[in-house]
Design brief:
Elements (H helix, E strand, L loop, with lengths): L1 H24 L24 H31 L7 H30 L5 H9 L2 H8 L3 H12 L3 H22 L13 H28 L2
Helix pairs in contact: 2-3, 2-8, 3-7, 6-8, 7-8
Length: 224
């Protein structure tokens, strides 16, 4: 019985460790936890609260990261293929997936921005953002200075709505770029996009991902 009890305790301990680790890591990738700056409104107001905004952030992030992942697969196909033998049908299928996921990301981000625009800030969180040691975190993580300073500017001012507006605008710009190179896969006149176009799309994907990650890192730190 002692052996069984010991085994049970070990299994329970492992479960707790895994569970705590899981809850600490998920979701923390792209703008996550920024919803804590919003307070739950009075019952007489619209039913908007931080939990709703957080759920929309998570959903939008999932779609954006899938779009970025598919675009990376597209770049891989370009990298390992000979220009004369590249599979344009496969490229177009990936572009279609990128486009669909970006559209879903944009739709959810528009909804969360609409909720955020009518939900009050929590003064306590705004003050924590003003007092946060941004320079120490930047030095610790070796962050890109330009993007980090941009995120710092929004958060130091407590302007999460402005940060959301910036992200939504970038997502819409990305979608326009994808629309510029996507055609129906049944088209026989498809011309592979210039590499300069792919460079631009890749840069904007990376910048958008990094911008969202940096904000998530700050909110992760102040929410510990």
């Amino acid at each position: 019985m002692k052996l069984k009890a010991g085994k049970l305790n070990a299994e329970l301990t492992l479960f707790i460790v895994l569970f705590v680790g899981y809850t600490n890591l998920f979701p923390m990738i792209w703008h996550n936890s920024s919803e804590i700056i919003y307070v739950t409104p009075l019952k007489t107001q619209a039913t908007t609260d931080s939990a709703s905004i957080g759920s929309l952030i998570q959903t939008s992030a999932g779609y954006f990261l899938k779009a970025q992942s598919d675009f990376s697969l597209l770049l891989r196909n370009v990298e390992i293929s000979d220009p004369s033998t590249i599979n344009n049908t496969e490229i177009q299928a990936l572009l279609k997936s990128v486009r669909n996921n970006l559209l879903n990301a944009i739709s959810n981000f528009r909804s969360l921005k609409s909720l955020a625009d009518v939900t009050a800030y929590d003064p306590y969180i705004v003050e924590k953002l003003k007092r946060f040691d941004y320079d120490t975190l930047k030095a610790k993580r070796f962050h890109n200075k330009g993007t980090w300073d941009e995120v710092k500017g929004y958060l130091l001012a407590g302007d999460v709505r402005g940060m959301y507006a910036k992200t939504l605008s970038t997502l819409e710009e990305l979608n326009k770029m994808v629309d510029g190179v996507y055609v129906n896969t049944s088209s026989t006149a498809y011309i592979f996009p210039d590499i300069e176009v792919l460079y631009g799309m890749h840069s904007l994907f990376c910048e958008t991902a990094t911008f969202g990650q940096y904000s998530a890192e700050v909110f992760y730190e102040i929410n510990k």
